[in-house]
Structures are given as C-alpha cells and as structure tokens.
Design brief:
By secondary structure, the chain is an alpha+beta fold. It has 28 helices and 27 strands. Helix 2 packs across helix 5 and helix 25 crosses helix 26. The radius of gyration is 33 Å and the shape is globular.
C-alpha cells in the first residue's frame, strides 16, 4: 500500500513538473519579443454550408523570418453560433457574420467570417468534386485504373481527362454494382478505397475523412454528373509561394481554387501534393510540409482538376554566413547568385587560377584546347582585363561556328539516316553559316520554321524531313524552341501542366498541310521538295472534334487562329513564327537563356534544361528572368549573352569546394566538373598527340567538331557517347564516364598509335634543333594536354621517368599518362 502511495506521489510530482514546464514554454511564447506580427490567410473567409476552411497562420519575426505557427496558434470565434474552430480548420455552424481571432507570441490577428446557406446541402458535382478525389487517391493514375487495360475490370480515364466516360464506368459498368443508391454506405466505390472489403490498391482513405464524406453525399444525391452550366475551375493558388524553413520544421500549404464565376474554394484537403526532393522536404496528403536533417530545396507541386500550383521550400544551413570581402560582383549574374547563396547560407568558392580559367574558356566556348603559346602569353599578361579580352578573342575564332553548329545539330535532329547525305550536308552548312555570321537567334529560327524548298538546296527544310508528322512536329518544335514538353497531352490532359488535348492538336494544326514530294536526282534518291499546301482543319482522333489552330497558351479567341486568316493557301507557319519569336513569348528566350547557362555552368537553372513548367521551377528564378531579359534586350545576339555569363565571377569560380558548399549541386557556389564530350575529347587527343584522326571520306585534318555526319563510323565517338539525334534535345549525348571508356583510353591501339606516331608531337619534339631538354619537353607536353605548367611533384616524377629509360619511351609514357589523367579528361 505504501509503495502504491509513494508511486502515486511520484507521478503527481512529475505531472506538476511537466505542467510547470509547459506553462513556462507557453509564457515564453506569449511574450516572445522577437515576434513582430501575425499573418492569417485567408484574409477574409466566406463559408458555404458546412464545408471547412483551412487556416494558415504565419508569424513574422522582427528579423524578417516567416514561420508557420498554424498548429501552435490559438483560435477563437466571437460568435460560436456562426462558426467554430477545430484544430486548424474553421466550420460554419449557422448563417451570419463573425470574427476569427488567432493568437500567438503575444500577438493576435482578426479575420472577418461570413457563413451562408448552412442549412442547404450543396449539390455535388462529379467533375468539380469527385474526379479530384479519384486523382488525389491515385485511382485514375497510369499504375491503377487509369492504365490502358484498366485494373480488375474497372477502367478510368488517365488523370480524369474524360469525366463523362468515368461517370459511366462507375455507374453502368460491372452491372452497376459499384454504387448502391438504396444503401449508399455499401457502395463498392466507398467500401474498396476504405478497405472495408478486399482492395488490390489497399486503403486509400478513411471512413471519417472529408473525401469519404463527399463521395458518400454524391451517392446519396443520386450520383449526378452535374449541371452543364456549373462553374469550372480556372486557377489554383498555393500559399505560401516560397518559404525559407529550418531543419526539421513544418509548413502548412493553403490551396485555393478560383472558379469561372469568380468564387473561391479551399481545396487544401482535396488537392494532390508531391515533392521533387524528399530529402530536403516531404509533404503529406493534407499539404503539411516537413523538412528533414539535410539542407537543400524542394518544389512542392499542388494539383487539382488540371490546375497546378507550386510552393518553393528553401532549407538553408543553420550556420550564419558573412559575405566574403573578396566577392566583388562583375555583373548582375553575380549579384543574383549571391542573393540566393545568402538565403541558403552557402559561401562561394574562390576564383579559379588563370590556367584553369583559360582551358575552361576554350573548351566551353569553342570545344578546342588552348595551344601552349596561348597559355604562356595569357599567364604572362599582367593587365587586369586579360580575362575579358580572352573572352572576346575566343568568341571571334572560326572554331566557334564549328562547335556551336555541332551543339544545335543534336537538337535539330541532323541525322543522315533520315536526311540522306545531301540533305544532312546542306542542313549542317546552313546551320554553320548562322553561327559564322552570328545571326540573331530569333531570325534563323524563324527561317527554319517557315522553310520551304528543295532539301538539296535549302538546308532548313530538312528539319521537316527529320520530323514528319504534325503530331511529331508539335512535340519537337515545342521542346526544341519553347522548352515545353507536350507529348502527354496528345492522349490526355498533361498530368503536371495545364496543357490539354486541345492545346496539343491546336499546335499540331500549324503543320497539318505540310507536303513532301520526291525529287528525282541522279545523286541522291532522298531529295524532297518541302512546302505547306495551306491551312487544313485539325481534329482530335478519338472524338473527331474540330480543334482551332493556335499556339500553346493562346486563347481560342485569339486572332492568330481566326478562320479569316487561316484559310486557303495561307501558310499558318508564318503566324506560328511570329508568335514563337516575339519578344513577349514566355518561353522562347527563356529556353535559350537556360541552354546557355547549362552549357557554361554545367547545370541548367531548370533541369532538364528543356522542361520549362510551373511544377519544375528554376533554382534561381530572378537569375533566369534576368538572363531571359538580356537575350531580348541584346536582340537575340547569343554571343552577347555568352559574354555576360563568361565575364561573371560565378563562371570563374574554382571547382574546389569549401565546408559550406561541398554538397551544393544547384546554387553555383563552385564550378561543376564535367567530362569532355566525345567529339571534343577526340579532337583534344589528336591535338595533344599531333596526330589528326582519319575520318573516312573527309580531308586530312578534319576535326570531329566539324563533322556533319553523326553516323560516320567511329568506335571512339560511339564509346564516349555522341548523340544519336533521335530526340529534339541534348539528352541523347552521354557525358557520364564508363569502364569501357577508361579501358579504351588505356589500351586502344588507336590511342597508342597516336602517341607513338612518327610524325606526331613527341617525334617532332625529339627532332628539334638544338635538342630540347627533358624539363622543357615535360613542360611542353603538360601545357598542351592540361593547359598549365607542371607542378613540382609532376616535374620530379617525370624527370625520374626520363632518367630511367630512353627519351622517346619516357616522353611517350608521360604523354600517355597525361591523356589518362583526370585533369585532361575533365573540364575543371
């Protein structure tokens, strides 16, 4: 008995202690001097019937920090007969007006509340209310009932793109057993997802959830499809749009949709949420974001009825960061990158040395190694503007056109298998001319879009031979020049974007009418005359619905698709080209800005670089906006934009990380190391060894970056990942190192024969008069291969090698070692 009494006293003491701690914590919060104010969303609340409203409470601190305190705040309602707060939601209890008060940290915020139609049960609309639930629960996804064959005899349209068919499938298929109007609670459409009966997909919702209540009410109302004139969703807003969060913290998302009649609805509980980086931040089905133990950033995608919203989450390092005194900004690139680094508490690395910078500049800009004399001259230059002058000099070189026409040949699908020898050659010659002239990007893209003529005479028409059907052209043009991937919308509404089938086929309509007529020639059987025969109607394949021809994102009422303009022999591509290259096009300049950034910095501000969508935001939106503006303001002069990037301090950073940026992969706090591309590496080996690669049917000395034929036999180029040119992107080119590549460099006779070539670099150095010293030869070989002088350790090891064998063997072994070194194979 005494033991029980003592145990009771101990427990009571512990409980008192816990209560005291809780009161102290609450008191500290109640009088927190760091809190400046509370922000409550929505700022005004209108409740219809008993539908709940998610509340979002943000605490603004005096240092500018915004912290979600939705779950810590206290709520009260002035008139409980009108509304009541439960947890983080507000519900109506009677018609009328009142005020909601939120309190935290000694502050409070008041929000007006209006409740109406509390006694009315609003009609449930299948499209607006039930389809979103099926999407949120994954029922209509491609891995469940939305796949082509359905699942266990039940098929829904993928992502709910055909609501009428889904309604019929639920009500009529399977002998109508999925709903029981006479006993709604026993409907299979409710029993299966709640796992009250066996379900292959497991439990998808609980019986007491809002989703279940809404579906049950729909069955009780007789499973209506809904009125044709009912308002439809036109926009979705996710709040907050961006939030800086601490490690292991939480943030509630508020999802609100706007209907065509101007009304708003809270859909926080009904929307679907996904995170693109679960390591940095996860999100649950109720829109609650939780960060982990690792700094980083994530984009939280919010989806509802084909509308998409995004919340950006930034999780900086907890350590404070002070701006380095040696961080002078060369231009706005540096200022905008630094602003992001400050948010993420990341310190940038220092500047690269002159040798590293020059080699990087040459390889990134013209795909060519600097020669030893060019390296020596640059190192000896003591003027402050020498890097700026080097940029101008490199951009003016002939190799610029060779290298950049190679990059764009990949994107534009310049493939001999499809175009024939003459077509591929003419296409490449035309492309090379554009970069030789530094023709504005918008001008040559426009010429390509409207191209007509013979494929053996007018190079750009071959684009319409590489891609032949209107559907494929809609995909390729959208991806190559807009960074918009619309492939999914060919069959159903795009799952991650706003594009519908009408958008897809409206875009395809511009190419509906393209004709290709064979031209008989003695030299090439693949010559064709390409032209547009004039506007033709475009219809959706399954429904035979007439689709107006219009660009992506342009409303159907736009004059660009007016029947008065797109008739007869008019070539609609003219209007497409006008829209595509217009300065206010939201994607055209933005995509090429992102392409250039990725090319020089190793990673796009948006990745993949040609996937620009709201659910795939840039890691630095202000920087991408600024670069896009520069493209337009410089009249699409790509060299001008390149100069801005190349002159920035960000581009000139070393690849060596510090303690704060070692794992940074998207904020450009240090340079990202990349392997040389296939053609550039082959040219570099040929240059270093002094032994040109013999390409079949090409003049001696032809470089790999000059080749127009990506099918020219070359085991080396295939092994190192040259592009197949089967997709309108740079994704067909592989830059990842492989075991086959390493073995090829070490053992391939082609490489060994270049090193030992009797007319190669080593042989020529050995024949110099007067004879070159060992140290001078080591320096020369290191300069040509690595673009820098040898280190003291390298010089010592190399001299020991020269002392142990013949000069020829030593020189060849040293050169072979350089070709297999990390510093040669990668751009640092």
């Amino acid at each position: 008995m005494r033991r029980d009494l003592q145990r009771h006293r101990n427990c009571r003491g512990i409980c008192r202690l816990i209560c005291i701690v809780i009161l102290l914590v609450h008191s500290a919060r109640a009088s927190d001097p760091s809190v400046e104010s509370l922000i409550v969303e929505p700022t005004a609340i209108v409740l219809h019937g008993t539908s709940p409203q998610q509340i979002l409470v943000t605490c603004k601190h005096r240092d500018g920090r915004l912290i979600d305190v939705t779950r810590e705040a206290e709520f009260s309602v002035d008139d409980a007969a009108v509304a009541s707060a439960a947890g983080t939601k507000l519900r109506g209890t009677g018609d009328g007006t009142t005020v909601l008060t939120a309190r935290f940290g000694g502050h409070e915020a008041r929000v007006p509340v209006r409740v109406k139609s509390i006694a009315d049960v609003p009609p449930v609309h299948f499209v607006n209310d039930i389809v979103p639930i099926l999407s949120k629960l994954g029922c209509n996804s491609g891995g469940c009932h939305g796949k082509a064959s359905g699942q266990n005899g039940f098929k829904l349209s993928v992502f709910g793109f055909d609501p009428e068919a889904d309604h019929a499938a639920i009500l009529k298929e399977g002998r109508g057993r999925r709903v029981q109007p006479s006993n709604p609670e026993r409907s299979l459409i409710l029993l299966k997802p709640t796992a009250q009966v066996p379900h292959g997909g497991g439990r998808r919702m609980s019986v007491d959830s809002l989703d279940h209540q809404l579906m049950l009410e729909w069955v009780r109302q007789g499973t209506p499809l809904g009125r044709d004139d009912a308002p439809h969703v036109i926009a979705l807003r996710a709040s907050p749009a961006e939030r800086v969060m601490g490690l292991q913290s939480s943030q509630q998302i508020l999802a609100t949709v706007e209907f065509s009649d101007g009304s708003l609805r809270d859909v926080t509980h009904a929307a679907a949420y996904t995170s693109n980086s679960g390591i940095a931040a996860e999100v649950d089905a109720q829109g609650l974001v939780r960060t982990g133990r690792v700094p980083g950033e994530a984009a939280i995608t919010v989806q509802y009825m084909g509308q998409v919203g995004v919340t950006r989450v930034l999780v900086p390092r907890p350590a404070a960061l002070t701006k380095p005194t040696e961080w002078p900004a060369n231009n706005d690139v540096d200022r905008l990158v630094w602003a992001k680094l400050q948010k993420m508490q990341i310190a940038p690395s220092g500047l690269s040395d002159d040798s590293t910078y020059l080699r990087r500049l040459f390889l990134d800009t013209i795909g060519t190694l600097p020669k030893p004399d060019e390296v020596r001259a640059f190192l000896a230059d003591t003027l402050a503007d020498k890097r700026s002058r080097a940029i101008d000099a490199v951009l003016a070189r002939d190799e610029y056109a060779d290298y950049w026409s190679l990059q764009w040949a990949d994107i534009l699908l310049l493939n001999r298998d499809k175009l024939g020898d003459r077509g591929a050659f003419e296409f490449h010659r035309w492309l090379h001319e554009q970069f030789t002239r530094n023709r504005p990007y918008n001008e040559w893209v426009r010429e390509l879009i409207v191209a007509s003529g013979r494929s053996d005479e007018h190079g750009p028409v071959n684009f319409y031979r590489a891609v032949r059907t209107p559907d494929q052209l809609a995909e390729s043009v959208s991806q190559a020049f807009l960074g918009v991937r619309v492939q999914c919308a060919q069959c159903h509404h795009h799952p991650f974007e706003k594009w519908s089938q009408s958008d897809f086929y409206g875009m395809a309509g511009f190419f509906n009418g393209l004709e290709r007529k064979p031209v008989k020639t003695a030299a090439d059987a693949k010559v064709e005359l390409v032209y547009h025969a004039g506007y033709r109607e475009t219809r959706m394949p399954l429904t035979d619905t007439l689709v107006p021809t219009r660009p992506l994102g342009v409303a159907e009422a736009s004059p660009v698709r007016s029947d008065a303009r797109l008739v007869g022999h008019d070539d609609p591509r003219m209007q497409l080209a006008d829209w595509l290259t217009a300065p206010n096009n939201p994607w055209f300049a933005r995509l090429v800005a992102n392409r250039l950034w990725k090319h020089f910095l190793g990673r796009g501000l948006v990745e993949p670089e040609d996937d620009l969508r709201s659910t795939n935001p840039a890691t630095n939106e202000p920087l991408l906006d600024w670069l896009t503006q520069q493209v337009v303001e410089n009249r699409y002069d790509l060299k001008a934009v390149m100069r801005l990037i190349l002159k920035s301090r960000v581009y000139q950073l070393t690849a060596d990380p510090n303690d704060t940026n070692r794992d940074d992969e998207q904020n450009f706090s240090h340079h990202y190391i990349r392997r040389l591309s296939a053609e550039v590496m082959l040219d570099a080996i040929s240059e270093v060894t002094g032994s040109p690669e013999p390409f079949p049917g090409r003049p001696r000395g032809t470089r790999a970056i000059e080749l127009w034929d990506n099918r020219l036999p070359s085991y080396f180029l295939d092994t190192f990942g040259r592009s197949e040119r089967t997709s309108p992107c740079e994704c067909g080119r592989s830059g990842e190192p492989t075991m086959a590549q390493a073995l090829h460099l070490m053992n391939a006779p082609e490489v060994s024969s270049k090193v030992a070539n009797s007319t190669g670099r080593v042989a020529r150095l050995l024949r110099t008069s007067p004879p070159i010293t060992d140290a001078a030869m080591i320096e020369e070989l290191t300069l040509v291969a690595l673009g820098r002088l040898p280190t003291e350790k390298e010089l010592r090891v190399a001299q020991a090698l020269f002392a142990s064998t013949t000069r020829r063997d030593a020189a060849e072994d040293y050169l072979w070692t350089l070709l297999n070194s990390y510093d040669f194979l990668f751009v640092r």
